[in-house]
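Incident log, structure service

09:12 report received: a user says their structure output differs between two submissions of the same chain.
09:20 pulled the input from the user's history:
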Amino acid sequence: MKTKLLAIMFLAGSTLFAGPRVFFGVGIGPAYGGYYYAPPPPPPPVVAYAPVPYPGPGYSYVNGYYYPYGGTYYWRQGYYARPPFYGAAWFGPRYYGGRYYPGYWGHRR
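09:34 re-ran on a clean worker, output below:
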């Protein structure tokens, strides 16, 4: 009888401290999950400028792009950069479905 009572008390006591496993959250801020809502960017500027000189082997060219900051868009001119790892490719930023996805270095597909 004592063992049954002890087992019931153990089960009842252990479920007292078990919390719910369902959580809801609301995120407020400019970036959440790698993307954020932004108005569509303006078209790329049509400007004739001298291309940046090629610095040497091992560099990749990153095309110019707009990026949102503080409610407006700023133009980032194209540049050469070293890939962070062998076989890396630059995937430029994009605007899709009302969301802005920043560019990133990733594996070629």
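09:41 both user submissions now match this output. Likely a transient worker issue. Closing.
09:42 reviewer note: The mean pLDDT is 77. The CA atoms of residues 59 and 82 lie 5 Å apart.
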